[in-house]
Design brief:
The complex is a heterodimer of chains A (511) and B (410).
Chain A lengths: L1 H17 L6 H11 L8 H8 L1 H9 L7 H6 L10 H7 L3 H7 L11 H14 L6 H17 L3 H13 L9 H13 L7 H9 L2 H6 L12 H10 L8 H18 L8 H11 L8 H10 L3 E4 L6 E4 L9 E3 L2 E3 L6 H11 L2 H15 L6 H13 L4 H9 L17 H11 L3 E2 L3 H9 L17 H4 L2 H15 L6 E2 L8 H8 L8
Antiparallel strand pairs in A: 1-2, 3-4, 5-6
Helix pairs in contact in A: 2-3, 3-4, 6-11, 9-22, 12-18, 14-15, 16-17, 19-20, 19-21, 20-21, 22-25, 25-26
Chain B lengths: L3 H15 L25 E8 L4 H4 E2 L4 H6 L17 E2 L5 E2 L7 H5 L3 E8 L7 H10 L11 H8 L11 E4 L14 E3 L14 H14 L2 H12 L16 H14 L6 E7 L13 H20 L6 E7 L19 E7 L6 E3 L20 E2 H11 L23
Parallel strand pairs in B: 1-8, 1-9, 5-11, 5-12, 6-7, 6-8
Antiparallel strand pairs in B: 2-4, 3-4, 5-10, 9-10
Helix pairs in contact in B: 9-10
The chains are: A mainly alpha (511), B alpha/beta (410).
Amino acid sequence: MRSILLLLLVLPVVSASSAPRELTEEQKATHALNRLGYGPRPGDVARVESMGIREYIEQQLHPEQIGDNATDSRLAMFPSIHMNADELLERYPQPQQAARQAGLQKAKAGDNLKADRAQLQNAMQQNGQQRPQLLLQELESQRIIRAVYSERQLQEVMTGFWFNHFNVDWKKGQDKWFTTEYEMNAIRPHVMGKFKDLLMATAKSPAMLFYLDNHLSSAPNTNTSLNAAAAARRVNPKNPLAPLIQARTAAAANVNKGKARNPGINENYGRELMELHTMGVDGGYTQKDVQEVARSFTGWTIDQPRQSAEFIFRPAMHDRGEKVVLGHTIRAGGGIEDGEQVIDILAHHPSTARFISTKLVRYFVSDNPPQSLIDKVAATYMKTDGDIREMLRTIFYSEEFMSPDAYQEKSKSALEYVASAIRAVNGETNGGPRLAQLLGKMGQPLYQYVAPTGFPDRADYWISDGSLVERINFAVNLTLNKIPDTRVQLTTFRDPNSAALYLGSPEFQKR
Amino acid sequence: MLSRRFFLKSAGVAAASFGAVPSFLLRTAYAQNPAGASGKDRPILIAIFQRGAADGISMVVPFGDPNYAVLRPQIGIPSPQQGSAETALDLDGFFGLHPALGSLKPIYDSGHLAMVHAVGSPDNSRSHFDAQDYMESGAPGNKSISDGWLNRYMQADPRAKGTSPFRAIALSSNMPRSLLGVAPALAMTKIQDFDVRGNGRGGSSGDLYAAFESMWHNETFDAIKMLKDANPTRFQPENGAVYPNQPFSQSLQQIAQIIKADVGLEVAFADLSGWDTHANQGAATGQLSQRLREFGDGISALYRDLGDRMRNVVVLTMTEFGRAMKQNGSGGTDHGHASALFVAGGPIKGGKVYGKWPGLAQDKLFEGRDLALTTDFRDVFSEILTKHLHTADVSKIFPGYKPGQTLGIL
């Protein structure tokens, strides 16, 4: 491990001291392709050099003006990525639920489980239903395909960055059905827009409300059984499953009545909102602020999480008392606007500008982000009301970004490594499940990082002995065409071995 | 020197609960880990991190504290009741073990498992990420320390030079903060996957392997060779140990295999996440109990599997902080302060819950909501370093730490 880190961390610094003070044009083009995207394909460096690096950066900053039909048609094989939670819940139900719908009995010990499973599979097939695990596979595949093929490379990089910043874990309960919409509707539309819009979209997303438990957070005097009973009455009568859902929610209401769960706030979202999404842990908030923020968001919940899953504000759950958040008074008697006001306070806080800028500079420039650049990016944030595109512009056109110190300083994440390797050898892939499985072995199970921090953005996280071995094996298998669903054309290499050595080299682990 | 209690408990209760007693437990003249021991007598530490802040008072239940049931009306663990699988398992008349940790009870009864309660970090951060970092760097409140406490232990040990690449290993896809630093350590999830393709298959693939080796020239390749020779996966679980088929237990099983393969292991690390129970944590059954079962069954399988070899192994668990004492509005618990930890192994004076109990009365709670801290986690870690791993100077391992109380766990 020591020598891996020596190779990966120390060498660039050593070489930088003897290197010329400016990058060559070829290095600049390579750098832009490595940082704004998932690395160069054969011919890309020359193309960017001849069009001009500035022109390439401007193009990437405006993904809406880049045609990407070829990628879109590759995505046609993943129908679930365009569905809302409502459809996903219906078409990819939990197996137990599908069994109930099909009128199958729950398997008991001693029953023929194999036959039961086959029966359930048949029933699901007849109803056009599939297992929820497929939703994860399609999400993973579309992310890999877009990283490898999208012409909107920077948009993909930013999607990865913001999803990781506002991380949710697909495995946690209902998030299996909420994560798809979360990426498509809460994250993707805002990746280069205003930070506040992104923050608001995540705050109101069923995926985040569920993941950080805010959907359960309520004023201490809330009557939860009344809420559940009200929910049962609200079921859309046109839904063919309405009687079933009504019966189940009513039963849940009764259970709650029996248990007399003591309602009250849940601090999870309030804390991570400040610590991880906006101000940073040293941003200057207190435990009292955490509680006040949590009180402000009481009632921000999910309408029918097992059926249609939409954001809803429930006045009956909301704490209408006065709150003081970071010195700002939120007047008593408010409703949904209490939480919205908190988002506004946080989005305009200088700690947020600093924290977001630091993360962006660490991602795009260096594991040791230069303070000079963080200050400039934070100033852009404050000046432009948190305009992400403008912050990126400040980074890309800075001296710090196009400097020998930054060149090849970052270690690739597993996805960056795999996507850049496939791009480097003109690979043809349909993003089959084996690739996502390998990413997991390299330490990046997509959509399944448990903690709200998201994957760390540091060389020492990505390069360990185990992940190094996985990466070398990937290089060998890829170049021998032994990765299922992925084929390469080694036009720029003498033979598979030289391609494998290139992709498995210390240099290729860097971007 | 083993106490009389140690001997009696070992011979009696352990025999009753295990059927077979590891033979080391019956030896009276056994001298503990002589300094400088090598080979099979080398002391080993297995550190286990419960990431996400495990609820200390659900793991080691203070049923004797009258405020416990008041603070946890729905998610509390009921007081011990003979024959019930849904109540705490009595440890000493005041504390009880969560029923899902039942497989650890025989180890406690045999005197080789102890708990420390109201333990944690003196830094009062309620951030998972800062608190984990502080516990793993061994320097609460100090963000300028870049290496981990276990790595500094290895740096400080004079045996460090020229030793096995398997001196320290994390069963994890990334190197945990605890082991980060200049001393060599390995990180991998599956030892059977730890091999470069084409290794030793002759022809061009052999050349390719050699080319990669010279390109990287690091101890990853030494470790691959050594692992191939030692072939640890040939060791099957012994003494009837059954490891649950879950990643955490699989990690522990691999640690046991590496120990049995005698490749020079001193420090092993494994972690288990999913302790951040803000909602619906359950009580005797439910979400938290499932996690606890995975945790307890894994450790007890390891203990049983290693049998006699546990004589020089210490298992130490830790979590970044505990949870709020009062349950919240969603049947869960928010971030708190002190928690509980477990230490197991031959050298441990177990069968006891260590640490001063601060009490759960409102005026005894930290900031009016959390379990107050009475033991700095470094007090426990230091005792293990000094008495088990024979570290001469813990001040190098815990910068800024002034040795506090010695609990006498070893």
